[in-house]
Amino acid sequence: MKKVLVIAGVVILLASNSFSDSIKFNENISLSSFIQNSYSKLQFVGKKPDFDIYKKGLVGYLNLKKQNRLSRSGLLTLIDFRLSSNKKRLWIIDLKQNKVVHHSLVAHGRNTGNEYATKFSNVPNSNSSSLGFYITGETYYGKHGLSLRLDGIEHGFNNNARSRAIVMHGADYVDASFTKLYGRIGRSFGCPSIPMNGHKEIIKKLANKSCMFIYYPDEYYLTNSKLANEVSAYEVLTQADFSL
Fold first, then answer.
1. In angstroms, rounded to a whole number, what is the distance separating the alpha carbons of residues 52 and 61?
2. Signal peptide location in the record (predicted)?
């Protein structure tokens, strides 16, 4: 019994220090402990994403890994639409290194709200943002320059993203100078637009099957999102060949 406890303690310690492709998990670690430990060790000098969005995002990420739908990049993008659009509410997390590698402003759709996002839609021509998990697609050059296609993978919430041309692109209106004039940054037609400064590097980094999670505490979404299934996510952790 003592030997089992010691082994479990060592594995938990490893998981709390960093993620690693080589770390193996077993039934002695709960999903909640794993996520709490990784969050507490998340490296970033600024404001980290709140724990609840981090937890939900990581659960969805693990479920998508189980479905073999993600690349091996280990990147998780979180967008917290509870926050003012004047705040930096986008985080890109390198899960393999357990650190935030980018933090910036991000726009919401013009019919989703003014300074704050409040209404969401999956309907074509709604000019609104859509909640849930996305898998990034290919890059292309359009009217906004280099852009990133997004595939919404939650039916009824964001599955029309590609047909609606909901993409990530740079925009001049995603800037603090815009806030000085209008009290908020500019709004998109539903795209998670990011600042022009460094947008090409970010888009290239996220392209080709990384995970993006756009969050707002909508009760209907939280009740019906299948990717928020913690039991399924825990099964991923206990696989002998688990890696991020």
1. 14
2. 1-20
**pTM summary value:** 0.88
* Radius of gyration (C-alpha) of the chain in whole angstroms: 18
Nearest to residue 148, comparing CAs of 172, 129, 167?
167
| Residue 164 CB contacts under 8 Å (≥ 6 apart), including other chains | 124, 125, 190
What backbone phi and psi angles, to 5 degrees, belong to 80?
-105, 100
| Tokens representing residue 85 in the block | 């659009």
Return all residues near 13 (Cβ < 8 A) that are at least 6 apart. Answer: none
Instruction: Write the pLDDT tens digit of every residue in 109-140.
Output: 999 999 999 999 999 999 999 999 999 999 99
Closest to 137 in 3D by CA, of 189, 69, 194, 78 = 69
d(CA 29, CA 239): 12
Start-end of H helices in the chain: 2-17, 31-40, 51-66, 176-182, 199-206, 219-224, 230-237
Residues 146-155: what's their mean pLDDT? 98
Task: Identify the structural domains of the chain with CATH numbers, from first to last.
Answer: 2-237 (2.40.440.10)
Judge whether 38 and 15 are in contact, CB under 8 Å. Answer: yes
Beta carbons of 126 and 113 less than 8 angstroms apart: no
